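User: Predict structure, ligand zinc ion.
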Amino acid sequence: MREEIVEAAKLIASTRPWIALTGAGISADSGIPTFRGPNGLWRRYRPEDLATPEAFQRDPHLVWEWYRWRMEIVFRAKPNPAHTALKRLEDLGVLVCVITQNVDGLHQLAGTRCVIELHGSIRRVRCTSCSYRAEVSEPPTEIPPRCPECGSLLRPDVVWFGEPIPSEALSRALELCERAAGIIVVGTSGVVMPAGMLPHIVKSRGGYVVEINIEPSAITSIADVFVRGRASEVLPQIVALVEEMLRRAYS
Ligand code: NAD
Ligand code: ZN
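Assistant: Predicted complex:
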């Protein structure tokens, strides 16, 4: 067993409550491309040039074509052992909530009860003019899709670059960071704000930061333990150890 895995498990088993901040990397092993990694590109476009209100205004058809491609991938994807490990940690009473930047809904599919979606969900659409909102389970057949209530354009119910985080999600996330004993940061580059700031808040309040990533990120310099590796391999090992440590402590 690698030393950092044991260190991470010791920290996690020694205190509570823990929270987690997840990014695209946790879903990479479910076959969903990250924005900044290989396969993140669609045609010749960078995500930063498609996931914006300006891009949608300029060319809603193009932006919807990209979302149709992403929806097809997400609707076929299944939670991987990293999502399941976080659900297990919640069942153990150690983890109180998962704060995610992902829009894929895989934490909920894995059974995690407390999930805060900072960037919305690709499994919902909403109207650009009225209050219409709906869940979707397949990509729209006609794009760009139109609102059944008022005929305006529908958009994915996600947060685009330059748009604010839904205020309730952000305030719940901030509150959790204020009182967390530690945060497990999984598969995020840590450069998208304000999500990237959350581990700093936990740290500044005296909490621990455990990070899992295949490479160092903007968070690594403040991590108490950095475990380098794929989330789907590393997280289940850490959680199994935590479970064993807790069992020993209570027997
Ligand atoms: P990012 O693409 O900027 O960074 C992904 C991070 O994951 C990188 O640091 C990379 O090293 C790491 N990583 C890749 N594979 C990994 C693995 N198997 N195990 C552990 N780590 C791995 O993603 P971000 O930080 O989440 O920010 C980008 C934005 O992209 C977010 O706002 C999010 O909404 C959006 N996004 C979401 C999804 C999704 O819902 N699955 C996918 C792509 C992008
Ligand atoms: Zn409408």
